[in-house]
Amino acid sequence: MPVPKHILSQIKAIIPPLNGSLHKGQSGRVGVLGGALDYTGAPFFASISALRIGADLSHVICSPTAAGAIKSYSPDLIVHPILREDQTTEQLRPALDSLLSRLHVLIVGPGLGREDYMIKYAKLAVTIAKEQGMYVVLDADALWMIGQDLALIRGYRRAVLTPNVMEFKRLSENVDIDPKIPPEERAMHVSRALGGVTVLEKGASDIICTNTGEASKEQAELNKISEGESTEERVVVDIPGGLKRCGGQGDILSGTVGTVMAWGKCFESGAFGDGSIPPSRIPLLAAVAGSMVTRTASRRAFSKNGRGVFDALCQGLFGSTDYRVGVVTQDMIPEIGGAFAEIFGEGEKGWGAPTSGGKL
């Protein structure tokens, strides 16, 4: 089932043009909140993927216990080790408030873990993001977090949730979805139960749903939409992905979805475009675009690297010199650009290089 043409057209409308008209930051400033003692790879994958798909700046907000490792992975990331265990939320709030005010989107969850202090700071970050009208992506342990406190995200239509199979099952139980509902319809019910947040249910095919109901006056003010506005939409992305599902691919998805949401924020603010796409469409469009790019990057990486050492061994036995070492998530990162070009083409709104210099 191909993604509808009008969806692809709307996604292309919010892609920053490569025509030299934009300066640094107007193609997206992305923040990833996560990274503690045990988890440093996930925030790296999310934040570096944001840069690889086309964000200008990518920030990681993490614990000091994770900062050194994350910094060592790439000099392109801006790392803020401000989530210290020995401070209160009141002490953290001014620094976090100031930092988030400079970003277009906040991705919460990659490498977050479930330590009390990290969950406490993640809740604070989501609260601040809502106050500032930011777009938000929630993944991994951030989904567990909102399962414990549904009010944290309920009704905030600028959010995308990206659950895998087990996370979606747990989330469905959290919001009391009837298990008798057909599986392909459950994401729509979860979205409605959470007040219209966009749900990207990962699986053999990715199901993206937004089901809001009519916006009350309070919801309209919170989400910067018209009172009474409602949406009920479902998109299935079934383009082929890689056949090996290794840990970390979901972090790449959150980074790509987050970047397209950042582009949407830039579009909304008038940095580029004609303003024809309403802000209420941005989360669904970003979820579809991120799903398409991530699945394509996964397929491209798998086609080059295969399952693992067994592939190389078998090929060696039969005299082949085409050894494939086994795909890991890092192999997807250099494929993001090619995946984007494969879907959206070259040129100003694709992956082509600009023909003139941009502003400093």
Automatic annotation (TrEMBL):
Its cofactor is Mg(2+). Belongs to the NnrD/CARKD family. It catalyses: (6S)-NADPHX + ATP = ADP + phosphate + NADPH + H(+); (6S)-NADHX + ATP = ADP + phosphate + NADH + H(+). It is an enzyme of class 4 (lyase). (6S)-NADPHX binds at residues 111, 164-170, 251. Catalyzes the dehydration of the S-form of NAD(P)HX at the expense of ATP, which is converted to ADP. Together with NAD(P)HX epimerase, which catalyzes the epimerization of the S- and R-forms, the enzyme allows the repair of both epimers of NAD(P)HX, a damaged form of NAD(P)H that is a result of enzymatic or heat-dependent hydration. This is ATP-dependent (S)-NAD(P)H-hydrate dehydratase. The keyword Nucleotide-binding applies. One of its GO terms (molecular function) is ATP-dependent NAD(P)H-hydrate dehydratase activity. It holds the Pfam family Carb_kinase. The keyword Nucleotide-binding applies. Coiled coil: none annotated. GO terms for cellular component: cytoplasm. Its EC number is 4.2.1.93. PANTHER family: ATP-DEPENDENT (S)-NAD(P)H-HYDRATE DEHYDRATASE (PTHR12592:SF0), ATP-DEPENDENT (S)-NAD(P)H-HYDRATE DEHYDRATASE FAMILY MEMBER (PTHR12592). InterPro entries: CARKD, Ribokinase-like. PROSITE patterns: YJEF_C_3 (PS51383). It comes from the Eukaryota. ATP binds at residues 202-206, 241-250.
